Each structure stands twice: as C-alpha cells, then as structure tokens.
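anyone else get weird line breaks when pasting these?? whatever heres mine. first is seq + tokens for prot A
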Amino acid sequence: MHKDLKILIVEDEPLIAEDILGFLETAGFSNISIVYDYESAALVLEQELVEIVLLDINLEGELNGMDVAKKINKEHHLPFIFITSYSDSATIKEVKELHPVGYIVKPFNGKEIPAVLELGYELFYTFMGKGSDFEIEKLNKFASEPLTQKEVEVLLCIAEGKNNKQAADSLFVSVNTIKTHLKNIFIKLDITSRSEAIVLLNKAKTK
C-alpha cells in the first residue's frame, strides 16, 4: 500500500483530529488533510484527489458526517471510515446503510486507525477492480489523456455487461453522470462503442 495515499480527516474536535493525524503519520502516511465541517469537506472533495476519508459522524452545523457520507456515495464514490463515540444498534443500522469500509468507536488506540484504514482501502479498491487483472497504465497508453479513477470504474461496469442504469446504481451516481463519463472515455480512447472499450481492456490485462 502506498504511503502517499491522499487521506481526508473530517473531525470537528481539533485535538482528536490531531491525534488521528499523529497516528497516521507514525504509521508512515504523509499526504493528509484535516477539515472540521461538512462545507469544508465538500470543498476538499471537489478540489483535491482524495482517496479515502476518515469521518466523524457528529459534526458542528446542520449537516453531519452522515450527510458527508451520502455526498461521497452520490458524487465521489470513495471509501470512507466512520469514527464515532456511538455504538448503539440504531446508529449501527443507519451507518450500515451508507456502506462504510470501516467503523471505529472512540476512544481508539494508535494502531487501530492505520490498520482499519489500510484494510478498508484495500478491500474497496480491490472490489472496484483497481489492481485486478489489468493495469491502468497500460490502458492509458491507448488514451489521448489519462483516464480518471471514476472513468476506469465505469469501464469496469461495461466489462461486467452492466447497462447505464445498472452502472449508475453500482457507482451511486446518476445515469446522466454515467453517460458523461462514457462520452469522455470514448473521446479519450478514440472509440465509438462498448465493444471497442472491452477490446482495449483486454489488451491492458496483465501478463
């Protein structure tokens, strides 16, 4: 696992946020941002290439960590881990419906956070196909400019035979978003059909 992984911490208590930062830095991670509310989290997610989020459920303001998670699922499709002081059945049920890759209950220890982060990251991106049987670098050799991670995820849905609606449901985005990604993919790869896309995916398979 690469230690320059871009991590976003969303935690409204600065001391706890700094503790989490310290634990991650001790484990070798260095590319970490901290924000304290929904609005700041939304801004970073829009502007930076975040790869995983550590997310407190309770945030100051009208919108909380659950709302951040819903935004991630709808617009960004990134792995996220909830950090909370609540472990009651009602909270757990609500959390499960948002599909986090991990759940850490406060108070936590220094080794727990990096371990859950690494496991959650690997499970998410392995499931999504990153590092599966093809190499993104090989695929990008056929592209006029590199494909984004979301475009690769759409391609994988195509390879699985999913239609636009099924791909949209899998990636927690709208059908129009899938159509936009497909348009960009076809332009970048200079192709006109899904079958051509699958041919290129096969060419990008590892030996």
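and prot B, same format (seq, then tokens)
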Amino acid sequence: MFDGVSYGLLGGLMACGLVLLLVFGTLIHAHFVLACGFALLAFAGLNSLAPADPLAHWAAGALGLWAVFRLQFARLLLRMRHFAPRLDRVAQAVGIALGLTVLYAAFETQLAWTLRAVQALVVAATVVLAAGALIALRGLRWPALLFCGGALLLLAGISATHLSVWSEAGWSPGQLNMAQAAVIAELALLATAVGARLRHVLNSEKALEARTHALMGAMGTDALTGATSRAGFESRCEEWLREGRPFSLMLVDLNGFSRVNDRHGRAGGDAVLAAIAQRLRQQVRADDMVARLGGDEFALLLAGSPARQKLAEMAIRIETAGATPVAFEGRLLAGGELSMGIACHPADGDTLPSLMASAGEALQHCQRQRMGPSYAFAGERTGHAAHG
C-alpha cells in the first residue's frame, strides 16, 4: 500500500509540473517533471525487481537520472550561477559524474556499485546545493529555506536506508521505503519552492514596474502611453500661466472604459489607452501637449487662442479617431467613446485649479446629456459650439 501511495504522489507532482511547464514553458519546470518521472520509474523498478534481474540495473540508471535532473532543477531554483558561481561549477562537475554513473548502469549489471555511486553523488550534490542555498538566502529567502528543509529530509532518508543489495541477504520488498519517502517529501517541498520562486519573480516584476512608472513620472512621461505625465502637465500649465500665455485646456475621458477591462483584462485596457494617447497626439500641433492625468483621463493643452469653432472641430476629429477599433492580439477592441470638457485661459480661469474645475464641470455636463455632441465648453449649458 505504501508503494501505491508513493507512486500516486509522484504522479501527482509530475502532473503539477507538467501544468506549470505548459503554462510557463521554462526549463526549470521541465527538469522538475523529468525528476519526478525518473524517480517513479526507479522506485517502481527497484521495489519489484530482484538484484539479479537483468532489468534491475536499468532501474538504478533511472535513479541516477532522477539525481541528474534534481541537480539541474535545484541549480536553476537557487540561481546558483548568479549567487554562487564557484559552487555552481562544483555542482556541474557532480552532475557530470552522475551522468557517467548512468552510462555505467546502462552497460553494466553491477547494481550494488551503481546504487552506492548514486547515493554518494546525491549526498555530495545535496551538500553543495545546500551551501549555495545558504548563500542565496538573502535574495531568495523562501525557495532557499524550502530547499534546505527538503535536503535535510533527503539526507536523513538516505542515511537510514540499508539496501539489501549491499549484503548477501536476499531482496525483500520495502527496503527502499525510507529513501523513497524522503525523495517524495523533498520533491513536494521543491514544488512548493517553485511556487515561492514564482511569487518572488512576480513581486520583483511589480516592484520594477512601479519604479519604472515612478521614474517616468518624475521625468514627465507616462510609462504606459508615452504621453506627458500629470506632473509634466501641471508643470507646463503653471509655466504658461506665469508667462501669461493664452491657451485652452481640454479634458478627455473614456466613457465605459471599465467594460474594456472586464471583457479583455488589463492588457486589453492598456492597449486601448495607448492607442487613444497616440490618436490624441496625431490631432494636436507640435507646441501643444497631450497628457495622461491618470486612469482613463487625458488632458490637452492647446497653445494660443483658437476660435471656439476650431476647438469644436478638433473635438469632433478626436471623437472620430477615438471611436476607431483597436487591434489587440488578433482581435479588434471597441475604441473609446470620448467625452470632452473645454476651458480657456484667461476667460474661464487664471489658475490651474480654476481651469481644471471649469473644464471638469463642462466634462460632467457633457457626460450627463444623452443627446448632443461629445464636447462642452466651460460656462455653457449646451454642448454646441459658439461662433468664432
């Protein structure tokens, strides 16, 4: 019964590894799957075959292949090449020795010698890897701790196992139970360590993304869309206000943008935002500015004193451009249904807060009305453009 449970656990761990391999397609998961598979073949053979059986040495070879792929998996898990390059070279040398042992097992039937060699090399590899885990502890805390826990279990199981092939005594089932249980327990901990490593990678990517956004924001650029950041927008607006330059502020909002994220996920929403920003840039002049204020809200700073009719015509062009579908992963996503609120300096405000409030009120009026154009001017109760 113990063997049946053991094989079931190894099969389950192998299936989990296959799922991760199919999802991520990385070498570390391939090594884990192969380690589970060869451990299953090795124990199934050693538990059912007598030492004199012609196929027994093949089971020992499978055990050696488990050791090879376990070693390669652990090297990648612990990032030995990065954290402990010298120990990584030692681990590679042990891996070569294990490979030679497997070749020996394929042509020779000296089962006892093969098992002794595999045991000795597994112990050596475990010690080297554990030392590397201690070095990598600061950078990979949980993967390193979980590996060390699994290594202790494996060493305890190996040291407590006395194989009958080492003596003249006959073969009896169950002799491998301690080592078998230790291997399975270690593989289970290694699977948990893979999960911890994935969390570490995801957290690192999120932190890097946050730092990138912060850096781009400090430089005045929105990292997602390439438009000017809110900080850059406020700086340019304050500069024009100090210089007393006339300009217009147009707030642009995407109506129903949350539906895009709900249907197509964050990546689809990001694609729509980036496309809208690009289309806005195509509608303005070199001296004008397109900024992303946050979420799905954009702002345009338009230099000079264009007539309201010109601003209305620009708003219509922006509305048409925004409605064009966005290509994303072979599909066309609905473009943005835009609403715009327009305020002019100095007529609608002489400070940034007052201009933002005026344009914001016009935007809200535009969004409330069911009929009419997609834009509204500050101070107007209709969305129609005034005469020039």
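btw re prot B: Confidence is low (pLDDT under 50) at residues 163-174, 382-388. The domain at 220-377 is CATH 3.30.70.270 (Alpha-Beta Plaits).
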